[in-house]
Amino acid sequence: xxxxxxxxxxxxxxxxxxxxxxxxxxxxxxxxxxxxxxxxxxxxxxxxxxxxxxxxxxxxxxxxxxxxxxxxxxxxxxxxxxxxxxxxxxxxxxxxxxxxxxxxxxxxxxxxxxxxxxxxxxxxxxxxxxxxxxxxxxxxxxxxxxxxxxxxxxxxxxxxxxxxxxxxxxxxxxxxxxxxxxxxxxxxxxxxxxxxxxxxxxxxxxxxxxxxxxxxxxxxxxxxxxxxxxxxxxxxxxxxxxxxxxxxxxxxxxxxxxxxxxxxxxxxxxxxxxxxxxxxxxxxxxxxxxxxxxxxxxxxxxxxxxxxxxxxxxxxxxxxxxxxxxxxxxxxxxxxxxxxxxxxxxxxxxxxxxxxxxxxxxxxxxxxxxxxxxxxxxxxxxxxxxxxxxxxxxxxxxxxxxxxxxxxxxxxxxxxxxxxxxxxxxxxxxxxxxxxxxxxxxxxxxxxxxx
Length: 451
What we know:
The chain is α/β, with parallel strands linked by helices and about 450 residues long. Helix content is about 35%, strand content about 20%. The chain is built from 16 helices and 18 strands. It has helices at about 10-20, 25-35, 50-60, 80-95, 110-120, 130-135, 155-160, 165-170, 190-195, 225-235, 250-260, 275-285, 320-325, 345-355, 390-400, 430-440, and strands spanning about 40-45, 75, 100-105, 125, 150, 180-185, 200-205, 215-220, 240-245, 265-270, 290-295, 310, 335-340, 360, 375-380, 410-415, 420-425, 450. The strands form three sheets. Strands 3-4-2-5-6-1-7 form a seven-stranded parallel beta sheet, sandwiched between helices. It has a seven-stranded parallel beta sheet with strand order 10-11-9-12-13-8-14, sandwiched between helices. Strands 16-17-15-18 form a four-stranded antiparallel beta sheet, covered by helices on one side. Helix 13 links the parallel strand 12 and strand 13.
């Protein structure tokens, strides 16, 4: 089977899939969906970007019963970003059904606000192990009606030390349930976990997923990494660049250095509150802050098209980390470039982590010393989103018709649950800010911030 219409799916679901641009299944969807629809447990090797989220979300939504107070499905994922990505996909796929409620539960956000949402009922919970266990210990989530469990990026969760937390949560789920485990790699501890969670699982391992990505990989031997990073950016001159560091401290130091040199920089690390991480990612993806310096929280679950280059300022410690990092570029069939900056110790590590990588001298680069990466747009935040029935078209109409902003000066508009964000050309952003601040959208007053 190649097309979704070949599966026994309701017509309204097929129409929604078609409206979202989903007609043909990806290899992981072709291999896993028939077994999942037959209520079998599965363990699948599936990387980010393979279509796995749709593979487990579609049957899950299909099996939801209407007007149930307690959650019917639980999805456990390693990071906040991945939780939000999964929740967004679930909501899009569930549009054909009425009143499907998805709640995300992760750290860095108000526990009280999450409890308030849970008290109103939920169909699907998407959360990180630590926060889910926190809620369970406080008796703020009810797991007795869970029919489907999904462990997404299980290898990453085990790497982060979540094995015991996961097993504690699973031990409190109904014995009669369907369990689905997705992992990018198959380390030994995955087998141990799956044996405790799954029942007679169907194993899905696709050869196609082992094919190399369309990413050019380079490594340079360097002494001064700050100078080498500048030379790399000034030589390849990307529009959107992602720089990986191994620690939060180094992430801040590198971001400060680039900012001092005139680059527009975003930071992503575990120290940030969730709203800060969200705003950093939005400004990176819309081009306001076109350089993102991050720890490995961005190596998975970060699905942003158009990243021209990934730079390993610090070389990763594990082969799978290297693979996930460079996989942030070359997405959506585009070509990508991955550059690693290596000191003497890291040059010796290359054989272990990426044996095929040839090391060049950094002096072979020809940087343009005057080049800096700066955003052509800045971002405005509006204190209103989906909960206040605000739509992208409402914001666009106000900016164009009421304030007089040319549509070509308006970039991405992101409408979230409680806030909206709009990228505006720097030449006219002051006009847009004042117009929104002093005017109204849909005859209502909203507070506006200039990020």
